[in-house]
Known about the structure:
The complex is a heterodimer.
Chain A: H1 3-9, H2 14-30, H3 33-53, E1 70-74, E2 86-90, H4 91-110, H5 115-144, H6 147-152, H7 158-186, H8 199-222, H9 229-244, H10 257-265, H11 267-278, H12 285-314
Chain B: E1 4-15, E2 19-30, E3 34-38, H1 45-52, E4 60-65, E5 68-69, H2 74-80, E6 81-84, H3 96-107, H4 111-124, H5 140-151, E7 158-162, H6 170-187, E8 190-194, H7 198-204, E9 207-212, E10 215-220, H8 222-228, E11 232-238, H9 245-249, E12 254-260, E13 263-268, H10 271-284, E14 289-295, H11 299-307, H12 318-332
Parallel strand pairs in B: 3-8, 3-9, 6-7, 7-8
Antiparallel strand pairs in B: 1-2, 1-4, 4-5, 9-10, 11-13, 11-14, 12-13
Helix pairs in contact in B: 3-4, 3-5, 5-6
Amino acid sequence: xxxxxxxxxxxxxxxxxxxxxxxxxxxxxxxxxxxxxxxxxxxxxxxxxxxxxxxxxxxxxxxxxxxxxxxxxxxxxxxxxxxxxxxxxxxxxxxxxxxxxxxxxxxxxxxxxxxxxxxxxxxxxxxxxxxxxxxxxxxxxxxxxxxxxxxxxxxxxxxxxxxxxxxxxxxxxxxxxxxxxxxxxxxxxxxxxxxxxxxxxxxxxxxxxxxxxxxxxxxxxxxxxxxxxxxxxxxxxxxxxxxxxxxxxxxxxxxxxxxxxxxxxxxxxxxxxxxxxxxxxxxxxxxxxxxxxxxxxxxxxxxxxxxxxxxxxxxx
Amino acid sequence: xxxxxxxxxxxxxxxxxxxxxxxxxxxxxxxxxxxxxxxxxxxxxxxxxxxxxxxxxxxxxxxxxxxxxxxxxxxxxxxxxxxxxxxxxxxxxxxxxxxxxxxxxxxxxxxxxxxxxxxxxxxxxxxxxxxxxxxxxxxxxxxxxxxxxxxxxxxxxxxxxxxxxxxxxxxxxxxxxxxxxxxxxxxxxxxxxxxxxxxxxxxxxxxxxxxxxxxxxxxxxxxxxxxxxxxxxxxxxxxxxxxxxxxxxxxxxxxxxxxxxxxxxxxxxxxxxxxxxxxxxxxxxxxxxxxxxxxxxxxxxxxxxxxxxxxxxxxxxxxxxxxxxxxxxxxxxx
Lengths: 316, 334
C-alpha cells in the first residue's frame, strides 16, 4: 500500500488546470465551423441591417432634402430688412445649408458625422454582453451531463474550474469584437485620426474587464441551475435594459433624466465610451481614465462576488 | 498500512433541509476487495458515492478514503481515487485521446508520463484505433470504456464505479466487466461499485451492502446474504380464492409464508423435500395447487427480501429525467 506515492505523483496546478479546461472549451468551439460562421454572421447581420438602415446622418444629406428649385417666402414672414414684398430662395443652396447644419448637429450629438461608425462600436458592446452571458451558462450543461461532478472529483484547483469559464467567455467576446471591428471597417467605419493599431490593445483591455465582470455574475447565477430555462430568461430580461439604457445605440444626453441615471451606472456605457474614444473619436486621456477606472472596479467587485458564490455552490 | 480503505461513520446527507437522501450509514471496505452497493432507484447510492468522492459535502458523519478525510483532506482523497460516473462525461466534441489527456491535466500528471499512460490505457480498453475520433462517434460501450480509461489515468488505489453497465446491451456489459476484472487484477485496486444487475454483483463482488431509503439494510458476502434468507424459496398459487397461509405454515421446515399478489412466497429449508409436503397438506384440505416453483436463493431473492417487491415510483425532477434520457440515448448509440 503506497498511498503516499500516489499522492505525490499528482501535481495539480492552477495554471495547468485552468489552461486544460479553457482549452477544452475553445477547442469545442473552434471544432464547430457552423457555430463559428454563425458567430460571425450574427454581428454582421445586426450591424449591416441596423447600422445601415438607421441612417440618421442620411437625414441631412443634400440628396435626401428634396426642396423645390425656388422657395418663395412671403414678406409677412420677413423681419429684416422690413417692407420686402417677397423673397425667393434657391432650393439647392438651402439644402446645402441644411446639410451643413445637419453635419454639425450629428457631430455635436454623436461625435461623428455618420451614425454607422457610432453604432458599429456600440455593436461590439452588445456582442460582448450576449456572448459573455451565453458562454457563462455552459456551466449548466456541464453540471447536467455530469462533467462538472467529474471535474470536482479530481484534485484540480476549484478556482481553475470557475476561471476557465470566465476566460472562455472573455476569449470568445474578444474574438467577436475583432471580427466586428474588421467588418465594420470594410463596411465604411471611419476611424479617427488619433487611432493607432496600439489602440486595439486598449479595446481588448476594456472588453476583457467587462467580460470578466459580467461572466462571473452569470456563472454564479447559473452554477446552481440544472435547467437552461432560468438563466436564458434572465439573459433576455437583462440584455435589453443593459443595451438601451446606455450609449450603445444612442447618446445618453438626449434621454430622460431617469434613464441617464441608469446609463451612468451601466458598465456598458463605459465600455462603449472607451472603445469609441479609442477608435472613432479623438482620444481623450481623461475620459479613458474615467472609463477604465469604472470598468476595472466593476470587474474586480463582480468577479469577487461571483467567484465567492460560485465557490460556495461548487460543492453542495 | 490501512486495512480499511473506505470507512464511513454515520454518513448523512440531507438536501434542502428536509430530504434525507442518506441516513447515518456506516460501512467499511477492505483493501483489495470489490464492494457492491445495491439498492432501488433513489435509495441513496449515488449520493453516498458523491460524498465519498468529495463531490457532495456530508451533512453529518465522517468518511475517509485511505485514511484521508473526505472533507478535511479532500485534495488527497481526490488524488488517490478514480471515478467512473453513471453518466457519460467525456466531452463529445473532443477525441478519446484528448479526453484522457484532459483528465491527466486535471490531475496534474507530468505530461510525458500522462502521454505514455494514456496510450497504454487506450490499448487496454481497446480504443487505441479510435483514439483520434471524436467521442460523438463512439458507441455506448466505447464511451463506457473511455470513462474507465479516464478514471484510471491517475493509477487510483480506489476506483468508484457508479452503475458502469447501465443501458448497455448484454454483450457490451459482459465485455465491460471483463475489462474491470482485468484492470483490478493489473492494478490491484479496491473497487466500490453500484449496479442494478444483481447477477453481475453476485459474480463480481466480494462483499455487498444493500441500501434502501438511505439506510444500509444488510451487509455481507453474496453467499452469506443468500444463506441469511434461511433456505430455498417456494412460490405457489392455488385455484381457490382462500387464505391458506396457516396451512402452509404448519408444514415442517417452513420458515416463513408471505402472500403476494395471489401467490405465496414460502421460505423453507430443503425445498425439494418440503415442497411435496406442502402440496400434500393443501390437497388434504381440498385445495388445488395450480402453480409451483422452487428456487434456490439468488441475489435477486436477497435483494427483494430486503427492499420489498413494490415498484418504486421515485420522484424525479424534469432535469434529472432529461439527463437520464440523454444518457440512455448515448448508451444506445451504435
